[in-house]
Amino acid sequence: QKEVEQNSGPLSVPEGAIASLNCTYSDRVSQSFFWYRQYSGKSPELIMSIYSNGDKEDGRFTAQLNKASQYVSLLIRDSQPSDSATYLCAVNTNAGNMLTFGGGTRLMVKP
Amino acid sequence: GAGVSQTPSNKVTEKGKYVELRCDPISGHTALYWYRQSLGQGPEFLIYFQGTGAADDSGLPNDRFFAVRPEGSVSTLKIQRTERGDSAVYLCASSADRGGGYTFGSGTRLTVV
Which residue from A9, A36, B38, B54 lies 20 to 30 Å from A99 (Cα-Cα)? Predict the structure, then answer.
Protein backbone atom coordinates (compact mmCIF):
# COMPACT_ATOMS: atom_id res chain seq x y z
CA GLN A 1 0.00 0.00 0.00
CA LYS A 2 1.32 3.42 -0.96
CA GLU A 3 1.72 5.94 1.85
CA VAL A 4 -0.35 8.58 0.03
CA GLU A 5 -2.94 7.50 -2.50
CA GLN A 6 -4.87 9.45 -5.08
CA ASN A 7 -7.03 8.43 -8.00
CA SER A 8 -4.99 9.27 -11.09
CA GLY A 9 -8.05 10.39 -13.05
CA PRO A 10 -8.64 12.13 -15.30
CA LEU A 11 -11.49 13.77 -13.43
CA SER A 12 -13.59 15.68 -15.91
CA VAL A 13 -16.02 18.39 -14.76
CA PRO A 14 -17.92 21.06 -16.66
CA GLU A 15 -17.03 24.71 -16.21
CA GLY A 16 -18.77 26.17 -13.16
CA ALA A 17 -19.15 22.84 -11.37
CA ILE A 18 -17.53 21.72 -8.12
CA ALA A 19 -14.47 19.51 -8.52
CA SER A 20 -13.79 17.12 -5.65
CA LEU A 21 -10.31 15.64 -5.30
CA ASN A 22 -9.56 12.99 -2.71
CA CYS A 23 -6.50 11.62 -0.97
CA THR A 24 -5.92 8.93 1.66
CA TYR A 25 -2.79 8.38 3.71
CA SER A 26 -1.50 5.48 5.75
CA ASP A 27 0.55 7.04 8.58
CA ARG A 28 -1.74 7.88 11.49
CA VAL A 29 0.77 10.28 13.08
CA SER A 30 0.78 12.58 10.06
CA GLN A 31 0.39 16.19 11.12
CA SER A 32 0.57 18.42 8.05
CA PHE A 33 -1.30 18.15 4.77
CA PHE A 34 -0.86 20.07 1.55
CA TRP A 35 -2.36 20.39 -1.89
CA TYR A 36 -0.17 21.35 -4.82
CA ARG A 37 -1.25 22.22 -8.35
CA GLN A 38 1.01 21.24 -11.23
CA TYR A 39 0.43 22.44 -14.76
CA SER A 40 1.86 20.31 -17.54
CA GLY A 41 5.59 20.88 -17.87
CA LYS A 42 5.74 23.07 -14.78
CA SER A 43 6.76 22.50 -11.17
CA PRO A 44 4.27 21.98 -8.30
CA GLU A 45 2.76 25.11 -6.75
CA LEU A 46 1.42 25.12 -3.18
CA ILE A 47 -2.25 26.09 -3.08
CA MET A 48 -3.56 24.88 0.31
CA SER A 49 -2.31 23.63 3.64
CA ILE A 50 -4.35 22.14 6.48
CA TYR A 51 -3.25 20.98 9.90
CA SER A 52 -6.41 20.27 11.94
CA ASN A 53 -9.63 18.39 11.38
CA GLY A 54 -12.38 20.21 9.56
CA ASP A 55 -12.57 22.57 6.65
CA LYS A 56 -10.28 25.38 5.55
CA GLU A 57 -11.45 27.77 2.86
CA ASP A 58 -9.38 30.04 0.63
CA GLY A 59 -11.25 31.67 -2.20
CA ARG A 60 -12.71 28.98 -4.46
CA PHE A 61 -10.69 26.27 -2.71
CA THR A 62 -11.70 24.29 0.38
CA ALA A 63 -9.47 21.70 1.99
CA GLN A 64 -11.09 19.10 4.24
CA LEU A 65 -9.25 16.91 6.74
CA ASN A 66 -10.51 13.89 8.64
CA LYS A 67 -7.66 12.36 10.65
CA ALA A 68 -9.80 9.55 12.04
CA SER A 69 -10.50 8.35 8.50
CA GLN A 70 -7.02 9.34 7.27
CA TYR A 71 -8.60 11.29 4.48
CA VAL A 72 -7.97 14.73 3.00
CA SER A 73 -9.84 16.34 0.14
CA LEU A 74 -9.81 19.46 -1.98
CA LEU A 75 -12.95 21.08 -3.33
CA ILE A 76 -12.76 23.60 -6.14
CA ARG A 77 -15.93 25.64 -6.56
CA ASP A 78 -16.94 27.33 -9.81
CA SER A 79 -14.29 25.33 -11.69
CA GLN A 80 -12.61 27.17 -14.56
CA PRO A 81 -10.72 25.77 -17.57
CA SER A 82 -7.60 27.36 -16.05
CA ASP A 83 -7.98 24.95 -13.11
CA SER A 84 -7.15 22.08 -15.47
CA ALA A 85 -3.96 20.61 -14.03
CA THR A 86 -2.68 17.74 -11.91
CA TYR A 87 -3.38 18.12 -8.20
CA LEU A 88 -0.88 16.56 -5.82
CA CYS A 89 -1.67 15.65 -2.23
CA ALA A 90 1.33 15.78 0.13
CA VAL A 91 1.59 14.60 3.71
CA ASN A 92 4.22 15.07 6.39
CA THR A 93 4.42 11.45 7.47
CA ASN A 94 7.06 11.55 10.16
CA ALA A 95 8.64 13.83 12.72
CA GLY A 96 10.88 15.45 10.15
CA ASN A 97 10.16 17.89 7.40
CA MET A 98 9.95 15.52 4.46
CA LEU A 99 6.70 15.46 2.52
CA THR A 100 5.41 12.33 0.84
CA PHE A 101 3.44 12.97 -2.32
CA GLY A 102 0.64 11.05 -3.91
CA GLY A 103 0.70 10.28 -7.60
CA GLY A 104 -1.63 13.16 -8.39
CA THR A 105 -5.11 13.48 -9.89
CA ARG A 106 -5.46 15.02 -13.32
CA LEU A 107 -8.38 17.46 -13.45
CA MET A 108 -9.94 18.56 -16.73
CA VAL A 109 -12.46 21.40 -16.69
CA LYS A 110 -14.42 21.53 -19.91
CA PRO A 111 -15.77 24.88 -21.17
CA GLY B 1 16.61 35.34 -4.43
CA ALA B 2 12.92 35.74 -5.04
CA GLY B 3 12.37 32.10 -5.83
CA VAL B 4 14.14 28.75 -5.93
CA SER B 5 16.53 28.70 -8.87
CA GLN B 6 17.67 25.49 -10.55
CA THR B 7 20.30 25.12 -13.22
CA PRO B 8 20.52 23.84 -15.84
CA SER B 9 16.88 23.67 -16.89
CA ASN B 10 17.69 20.81 -19.26
CA LYS B 11 20.58 18.40 -19.32
CA VAL B 12 21.22 15.65 -21.86
CA THR B 13 24.06 13.30 -21.04
CA GLU B 14 25.39 10.00 -22.24
CA LYS B 15 25.02 6.85 -20.20
CA GLY B 16 27.93 6.47 -17.82
CA LYS B 17 28.71 10.19 -17.55
CA TYR B 18 28.76 12.30 -14.39
CA VAL B 19 26.30 15.18 -13.91
CA GLU B 20 25.81 17.96 -11.38
CA LEU B 21 22.52 19.72 -10.81
CA ARG B 22 22.44 23.00 -8.91
CA CYS B 23 19.82 24.51 -6.62
CA ASP B 24 19.79 28.02 -5.15
CA PRO B 25 17.04 28.22 -2.51
CA ILE B 26 15.01 31.20 -1.36
CA SER B 27 17.21 33.50 0.71
CA GLY B 28 16.89 32.68 4.41
CA HIS B 29 15.30 29.26 3.91
CA THR B 30 17.25 26.80 6.04
CA ALA B 31 15.55 23.64 4.77
CA LEU B 32 16.30 22.36 1.26
CA TYR B 33 14.90 19.27 -0.44
CA TRP B 34 15.63 17.31 -3.59
CA TYR B 35 12.91 15.27 -5.28
CA ARG B 36 12.68 13.61 -8.65
CA GLN B 37 9.58 13.20 -10.72
CA SER B 38 8.98 10.76 -13.53
CA LEU B 39 6.25 11.29 -16.11
CA GLY B 40 2.80 10.71 -14.70
CA GLN B 41 4.00 10.24 -11.13
CA GLY B 42 4.24 12.36 -8.02
CA PRO B 43 7.54 13.75 -6.78
CA GLU B 44 9.73 11.16 -5.06
CA PHE B 45 11.84 12.26 -2.09
CA LEU B 46 15.62 12.02 -2.41
CA ILE B 47 17.31 14.05 0.34
CA TYR B 48 16.65 16.83 2.85
CA PHE B 49 19.12 19.36 4.24
CA GLN B 50 18.66 21.41 7.37
CA GLY B 51 21.46 23.96 7.18
CA THR B 52 24.65 22.37 5.92
CA GLY B 53 23.96 18.81 6.99
CA ALA B 54 21.89 16.13 5.32
CA ALA B 55 19.14 15.53 7.86
CA ASP B 56 17.57 12.71 5.86
CA ASP B 57 19.12 11.01 2.83
CA SER B 58 16.94 7.91 2.95
CA GLY B 59 15.47 8.58 -0.49
CA LEU B 60 18.73 8.43 -2.43
CA PRO B 61 18.30 5.32 -4.61
CA ASN B 62 21.92 4.12 -4.49
CA ASP B 63 25.49 5.28 -3.93
CA ARG B 64 25.70 6.85 -7.38
CA PHE B 65 23.67 9.73 -5.99
CA PHE B 66 25.18 12.29 -3.65
CA ALA B 67 24.26 15.82 -2.61
CA VAL B 68 26.06 18.61 -0.77
CA ARG B 69 25.20 21.97 0.70
CA PRO B 70 28.56 23.20 2.02
CA GLU B 71 27.57 26.70 3.15
CA GLY B 72 23.93 26.10 4.02
CA SER B 73 22.61 27.81 0.92
CA VAL B 74 23.29 26.47 -2.60
CA SER B 75 23.06 22.70 -3.01
CA THR B 76 24.44 20.42 -5.70
CA LEU B 77 23.02 17.01 -6.55
CA LYS B 78 25.66 14.78 -8.08
CA ILE B 79 24.97 11.64 -10.09
CA GLN B 80 27.81 9.33 -11.07
CA ARG B 81 27.79 6.76 -13.88
CA THR B 82 24.38 7.88 -15.08
CA GLU B 83 21.91 5.28 -16.29
CA ARG B 84 18.92 5.67 -18.61
CA GLY B 85 16.64 5.03 -15.62
CA ASP B 86 17.93 8.23 -14.02
CA SER B 87 16.07 10.25 -16.65
CA ALA B 88 13.50 12.38 -14.84
CA VAL B 89 12.80 15.92 -13.71
CA TYR B 90 14.84 16.73 -10.63
CA LEU B 91 13.05 19.20 -8.39
CA CYS B 92 14.56 21.28 -5.63
CA ALA B 93 12.44 22.96 -2.95
CA SER B 94 13.06 25.07 0.12
CA SER B 95 11.08 26.04 3.19
CA ALA B 96 11.49 28.45 6.06
CA ASP B 97 9.93 26.44 8.84
CA ARG B 98 9.43 22.92 10.04
CA GLY B 99 6.27 21.25 8.86
CA GLY B 100 5.44 23.98 6.39
CA GLY B 101 4.85 23.69 2.68
CA TYR B 102 7.67 23.91 0.19
CA THR B 103 8.39 26.28 -2.65
CA PHE B 104 9.67 24.36 -5.66
CA GLY B 105 12.10 25.46 -8.30
CA SER B 106 11.34 24.98 -11.98
CA GLY B 107 13.30 21.75 -12.07
CA THR B 108 16.07 20.24 -14.17
CA ARG B 109 14.98 17.80 -16.86
CA LEU B 110 17.70 15.15 -17.06
CA THR B 111 17.81 12.88 -20.09
CA VAL B 112 20.32 10.06 -20.19
CA VAL B 113 20.83 8.68 -23.70
Answer: A9
